[in-house]
Amino acid sequence: MSGWDSYRAVYGAELRAAAHEFDDHGWPVVAASPTALLLVTGTALDIVEVPAAVGRQVCAHLRDTGSVVPIAATPTGSWWFPVTPGAVLPAELRDVDGVVLHTAGTAVLAPPSEVPDGWVHWRVAPALTGYRVPAADTILNAAADALRWRADRNAHPGAQRPAGALAVGMRSSLM
Question: Pick from 54, 120, 50, 42: which is nearest to 80 by CA?
Answer without folding.
Answer: 50
